[in-house]
Amino acid sequence: MVIDTALLDRFAAIVGPDNALRDEADLALRVTEDRGLYRGTSPMLLKPGSTQEVAAIMKLASETGTAIVPQTGNTGLVGGQTPRAGKADIILSLERMNRIRDIDPVANVLVCDAGVILAEVQRAAEEVNRLFPLSLGSEGSCRIGGNLSTNAGGVAVLAYGNMRQLCLGLEVVLPTGEIWDGLRRLKKDNTGYDLRDLFIGAEGTLGVITCAVLKLFPRPVGHQVAFAGLNSTEDALKLFEKASSLCGPALTGFELMPRIGVEFTTKHIDGVRDPLESPHPWYALIDISTSDSAETAETMVHALLEQGFEAGLVQDAVIASSVAQAQALWHMRESMSASQKPEGGSIKHDISVPISKIPAFMAEAEQAVLAAVPGARVCAFGHLGDGNIHYNISQPVGADKAEFLARWHEVNEIVHGLVLKAGGSISAEHGIGQLKRDELAAIRSDIEMDLMRRIKHAFDPAGIMNPDKVIRA
Amino acid sequence: MVIDTALLDRFAAIVGPDNALRDEADLALRVTEDRGLYRGTSPMLLKPGSTQEVAAIMKLASETGTAIVPQTGNTGLVGGQTPRAGKADIILSLERMNRIRDIDPVANVLVCDAGVILAEVQRAAEEVNRLFPLSLGSEGSCRIGGNLSTNAGGVAVLAYGNMRQLCLGLEVVLPTGEIWDGLRRLKKDNTGYDLRDLFIGAEGTLGVITCAVLKLFPRPVGHQVAFAGLNSTEDALKLFEKASSLCGPALTGFELMPRIGVEFTTKHIDGVRDPLESPHPWYALIDISTSDSAETAETMVHALLEQGFEAGLVQDAVIASSVAQAQALWHMRESMSASQKPEGGSIKHDISVPISKIPAFMAEAEQAVLAAVPGARVCAFGHLGDGNIHYNISQPVGADKAEFLARWHEVNEIVHGLVLKAGGSISAEHGIGQLKRDELAAIRSDIEMDLMRRIKHAFDPAGIMNPDKVIRA
């Protein structure tokens, strides 16, 4: 499929020649993503510098039936930001729109363009003694537009929620080129349908988010991180219940990790050491943040571990005694996925189940996976407090990587079958994109898919807005 | 407008004759609401006993073009639940669907029919040592379906959010009679468009909510309530900032009240006394809840008042020393609206502005109101921490009530004009319904109204679902 040069010239004229890339070499990194799982084709990448330019692009696209794929940090994991293969999708990159428009520490809001890097938002908040709590592995390169479009989660969801909870208002360019100004700064506003939350998580299929009002929070003054060795996922769940009751919203992290994850990280990741003397089947990383005083966090973490020991839930534990130690514990958790790479192929799942069902799900899933792939090494870890597990499976030792990865869909079906049986989600964090689009259609009711298609058609009648992502046109 | 008896009989057959009311006397309280502001007409009220019966009703309504008005506790304040005047809207009451389907204190979820009374949900949560935080003046009679349909807020929004934040999943009967089963129990689920939040706050115009999965929370163990006399709204805002930084999510209430509100309540409401020795222009009611220990709340409240005194923000203060005293302080705040009744007519506004703009807005609005209605008594109070003020205005002493109330729209225009200038909302909590429908259309951009109409049409092509509420057909 090709677009004629005259039309490309018209698009280029909107942003100026320097901001319209057509060379294959310039586009190479943008038609694919980090892992190379998706490779699309595109005749052009546009870098508009303002909402008005985005609007002009969408207007022209709408008039000429040209498909547009919005892209920000290009760190998405489901191919939502990648142009389709064999088509002529134009990539619309928001990277030049990277201005923090306003910051109000009294109202606790920050207003920024969609192209601002997440870490920049965190820094800007810190400068006015506030916290923007969204935190992800890719925070140094992912951008707010993508965070919003995927309703990003990360490690602080337990206490602060995901992107839907962290956003008060949006500016969106619609597929027609019209601009919706929904840049409200209000915590309470019951005036009509919730358009904001419809655009958030829509993965760029309903419009192009160009600006957002984000919520800020007071910075906690007390922070404690503990690492506990546990016998079972049942014990982990019981310990989480105790932590949740004791700490309430001060419980800012409760991550579950398996022994094999500790082995992988200590073996492959620089500077990671097993903090406990002897091995344990499971581990919990517990993060507590308090706003009134450092002592409250200290009292809490000691009380929790004491309760855990007394109830026989905690076998051994350490409390980080410095910021460096706290960071080292988090570093272990955050490098768990990377530590699987040297172990060969890994089949991944980004799932959630109601947290009361985690122990049963983990046991059933491991049994089913091992029955299908004897010797496979399940390295399932993640945000226990949210019911969100990164259910990763490393290949058997010595197995052929390609052969193992060829069973991706077969293994997905086994794991997702059990997830659905438990009332869970096949995409807790990463979204649908291209990766899970057909699977979503297969597992959702006809009426739900139909409602989604009706919304898509109502917003994008020409079908030009990131087509074939989330749902098929 | 009339519906023929044969059609009414077909509707009645779905629920059985005992659950299909046609007598005018039986319908009298259902075609109007408490204050009698809206009076509609209806040939029939149906009380289905199951989701399937609701679906059958909607299917028949869809086939015959019959308008349906969902109703639960009938406590709404904008006429959203009232049938239209001069039409033949059938009322669909969810009151018989009042079963708590499931409660899981480990996963912290409660699943209940839309007809369950809010206070029953609170009680059921308490029985398993959990908190359902939504709390409203009408909690003894309002029902979950209405709370969801209006995205209810109340006094605990500051810490726990409004109904959108408190709901994980929904079951909805669509205008066509199809059932959408979205009864998910997951905190993280990024699988497609956010249908849930579209139905929440849609005031019954997109479908009939029949069941919901609600979030539960650990019950706090420490609770402190303080009442502080302040010189100005500027000081109130500064004190709120201190409270928010110090207490973080443990700050579960920060209510602003004017002197006149304390005068009205002490004069007219049984058992309310001024807790402070001398009068102050403004007051803050501060509510702190902690999960780790009672001492933490105690330490916090003392530290906050100390900081407030030192900074010259707090002129005088009391801390409730018993549960009864804490309740008495809240009782004053909660009866503030009722205490205006004996003072004559009251023109009300349910508005929000970004909290940093509250002092300027309050000053400007009072000046503008007094310029238009000399002698009017502004009694503006509410959830300062959410930027949500119930901007009520009592008539001048000795004025004619009817004459004063005849200026309702004129005064609304003055106040709402300033609200919009401050980037605020003309309906922070109560919704749009009939009351603010035309005003919403006037203040919103064409593109926003158009998007709302496109959604309405996509979900309800026959236009039978609570027509002419929120937006005109």
Automatic annotation (TrEMBL), chains A, B:
GO BP: respiratory electron transport chain
Pfam families: FAD-oxidase_C, FAD_binding_4
SUPFAM superfamilies xrefs: FAD-binding/transporter-associated domain-like, FAD-linked oxidases, C-terminal domain
Gene Ontology MF terms: catalytic activity; FAD binding
Protein keywords: FAD, Flavoprotein
Bilayer-crossing regions: none
Residues of the FAD-binding PCMH-type domain: 38-219
Cofactor: FAD
Source domain of life: Bacteria
Family: Belongs to the FAD-binding oxidoreductase/transferase type 4 family.
Name of the molecule in the record: FAD-binding protein
